[in-house]
Amino acid sequence: MIPPQININDDVINNSFLSILSLIKRYYNINFNTVAKNKYSFLVANAVDIIENNYYSNITLNDLSKRLSIAKSTLEHQFKKETNCSIIEYKINCQLEEACNLLKITNTQISDIAMETGFNNVSYFSKMFKKKYDLTPKAYRELYKRTINEHV
Prior knowledge:
Blueprint: H1 10-28, H2 34-39, H3 42-54, H4 61-68, H5 72-83, H6 87-105, H7 110-116, H8 122-133, H9 137-150
């Protein structure tokens, strides 16, 4: 008996691949984002690198400024100038992107995903997620799974 063929579109494969890379990056504390190093000044590229590799921890502007040996106000100003967002906004975006990956590739409870991505409060996580994606984390996961099933 020949097994049925599975037809998965390229977007599904790309999303899965990116999700796996994200988990590997986090596990091994590797930064694959070489674009940031070319796009931003040395200072901001280093700040981006630190944030992307530590977004799940409670890293603060104070921590960043100490690690980079620069005044908080200078770092904050230069970061905003080059990225068009604040350091906290950038960190939250990293957290939410990782949450999306985890929602897609795991069955982990949403409260656990919130904690794994550095949100200490599930309600705040859900509020920020909905603000960015216009969906609750649960609805996002369900929509993703429904989309995958339609393409299989």
